[in-house]
Amino acid sequence: MNQLLASGLPRRNNSSTAKFNNPKFVSKAVNDYTLQWGFHETSIAERLRLETANHARSVMMGDPTEAALFSILLPAMGVKKVIEVGVFTGYTTLIMAQSLGEEGTIVALDVSEEYCAIGKKYWKEAGVDGKIDLRIAPAQDSLQAMLLEKGEEGTYDFAFIDADKTNYKNYYELLLKLLRPNGIIAIDNVLWGGRVLDESVTDDDTVALREMSKHVYEDERVEHVLLPFADGVTLVRKK
Q1: Which of 25, 36, 159, 200 has the smallest C-beta neighbourhood within 10 Å, fewest atoms?
Q2: Coil, strand, or helix at residue 107?
Q3: Radius of gyration of the chain from Cα atoms?
Q4: Burial of 47 (0-12, 13-18, 19+ CB in 10 A)
Q5: Closest CA to 95 of 121, 138, 62
Q6: Cβ–Cβ < 8 Å for 193, 117
């Protein structure tokens, strides 16, 4: 079963779901049911998630249900080329890499070698490290450099943004150039724990996320849907 636990019984419990025990937008009962029955996860991915859950900055880890959604979307779309903006410990990177075919690659962009090093050993154990091109540098610089590479513009199938919120719009614009028609950009944290709903909250990250959603809504180059699960994820299709 591709390293899945083979008993057929659910294997996620309170100790292994970490920060995901306190859902923001659904009842705890619905959340617990989803975590128990809603997706499969390899044992390697589960161990990476558990290690990340004990990290001082575990709040930065992507939601496992969101990663599971990508693991369905990528093969269904025939994705071969992915860009991930924001890696942290590489949990979502691992899930996406496991879902890609032999020719699939992920350009993974982050600024922290220290955080990414946590995931590297799991990528290698899963046999997907060869699919992951990790680039440690400011993501905006990396994306601009990619656009200068011959034959890269308009060739990527899927992109995921989960990094510094104040640069989301910059990442989005650069990724649209790299994305092929009908390619998808997934934008994380668009509900931001509900803070985007409260106009009295005006910190830089919250304002940037509100502006990002408005920008996508008004962008005639794309179609989009905002999904109110995890911390809110917007899927954008380039026309």
Answers
A1: 200
A2: strand
A3: 17
A4: middle
A5: 62
A6: no
Q: Locate tokens 């899963």: which residue?
A: 126
Here the tokens at position 55 are 């990290």
Q: Mapping DSSP to helix (H, G, I), strand (E, B) and coil, where does residue 10 land?
A: coil
pLDDT of residue 54: 83
Taking alpha carbons only, the member of 120, 144, 141 closest to residue 132 is: 120
Give 62-90 as a DSSP string: PPHHHHHHHHHHHHHHT--EEEEE--TTS
Low-confidence ranges of the chain (pLDDT < 70): 1-22
Nearest to 145 by CA among 90, 186, 183, 107: 107
Pairing outcome for strands 105-110 and 132-136:
parallel
Beta strands in the chain (DSSP E): 81-85, 105-110, 132-136, 156-161, 179-188, 222-227, 233-238
- CB-side neighbour CA atoms (13 Å) of 66: 25
Q: Are strands 156-161 and 233-238 parallel, antiparallel or unpaired?
A: unpaired
Q: What pTM, to 2 d.p., does this model score?
A: 0.91
Separation CA 12–CA 36 (nearest Å): 6
